[in-house]
Amino acid sequence: MIAVDDLLAAAQAETGLDDFGADSFREGLDVLVRSLNSESKLSDLGQVVVPMLISKLLSQRLQIEDWYRRHPEIDDEPLVAPLFGLGLPRTGSTALAFLLAEDPNARTLRLWEATEPCPPPSTVEPPDPRIAATAAGLEMHHQMSPRMALLLPSSATGPEECQDLMALDFRAHYFQAFAYVPSYADWLVDADLDSTYAYERRVLKLLQWGEPTTRPWRLKCPSHLLWLDHLDSAFPDARFVMTHRDPTEVMVSVCDVYREVMLPLNDDIDSHYLGRLNVEQWSIAMERVMAFRAEHGDDRFYDMDFRAVQSDPIGEVRGLYDWLGEPVTDEFEAGMRGWWETNAETREAAIHPEPEEFGLDLDEVRGRFTAYTAASQDWIRRRG
């Protein structure tokens, strides 16, 4: 059994710190631990890894608060008009994030700092040891699960989703990919994420603090679609690039990723549950994004078709940057071309299981996303 008090005490003992900051994180932590204890089917490895992940998040939170205590000026850091990548999972948003990460005039959330934001990167003499440690961890992970390298491109210095920063408030989608936690998943989809995005702002300020120039952030996370109103409250000047793909292709692919993540950490995996979970949550997400755009307008959104990005990635990024009013420099373009060519061999190479393995009826899936599919085609057409 995992005990919240034990996790808190262990993080305090490890760091020698005792201030976790605002207690908003406690609700999500309590719900998550209850769900893990009563519902999960963790393997021996999972029973070690998942509590270790929670402890690491708590330790990082203690360290973040300690840096703010000693350097309150961090809160003065400006975060101006960040660009958030949105879209259903498996719509090319990861490849797009890697392309945008080649812009030397923009700032991405790098994997090594997303998983361990403290100490702030500017305070560490290069090379930062977290980079090598993260690369070694990735290599070990890919040895344990070779398919993940095909399903999701990743590198220690490459861009990472906002999941790790959201998890510091224990309201993050990725917990449900590590373990069977249906109670947590049900709670999360309707949770209040105002504190989550406020804490993400707090960490982004810490990560950029001390850098010689302030660069605009390029961030991404499909989960943001579920909580756009809360994201908008924390980042009212944010802009959004949204990638689109046939939802019937998306659902099989995302279920495959979930199962691949879960395999080493769980003794038993209910693949049909993964199908139901993803169809339900992502159909809700698209209803919410359509409502948000209907209320607030489309001016802050730039829409991209998955196949268009696959066929002309540089041209699509140029269109996005024209919309942003920013240049695609020669250095930026060369970096994008180099990354795209290097990763060409693995792109779209993964072969996914049949939909029936996840209990998916593609006609039913198509019906759940009919309104979104029509809206997305209209958004892309109007962009052109």
What does it look like?
It is a single chain. This protein has a single domain, classed as P-loop containing nucleotide triphosphate hydrolases (Rossmann fold, 3-Layer(aba) Sandwich). A five-stranded parallel β-sheet has the order 2-3-1-4-5. It is globular, with a radius of gyration of 20 Å. The protein has 19 helices and five strands. It is mainly alpha-helical and 384 residues long.
List the topology elements:
Elements: H1 4-15, H2 25-39, H3 44-70, E1 83-87, H4 93-100, E2 107-108, H5 111-114, H6 129-144, H7 146-151, H8 163-167, H9 175-178, H10 182-189, H11 194-208, E3 217-220, H12 228-234, E4 239-244, H13 247-262, H14 271-296, E5 301-305, H15 306-311, H16 313-324, H17 330-342, H18 362-368, H19 370-383
Parallel strand pairs: 1-3, 1-4, 2-3, 4-5
Helix pairs in contact: 1-3, 2-10, 4-17, 11-12, 13-14
Shape, per Cα inertia axes: globular
The count of β-strands is 5
Task: Give the averaged pLDDT, no decimals.
Answer: 95
Q: Return the CATH architecture.
A: 3-Layer(aba) Sandwich
- Under CATH, the homologous superfamily reads P-loop containing nucleotide triphosphate hydrolases
In terms of per-residue confidence, which ranges show pLDDT below 50 for 5 or more consecutive residues?
A: none
Termini, distance in Å?
55 Å
CATH topology: Rossmann fold
Radius of gyration: 20 Å
The share of residues in extended strands comes to 5-15%
User: What is the H/E order?
Assistant: HHHEHEHHHHHHHEHEHHEHHHHH
Largest sheet, order of strands side by side? 2-3-1-4-5
The major sheet is characterized as: 5 strands, parallel
Integer count of domains: 1
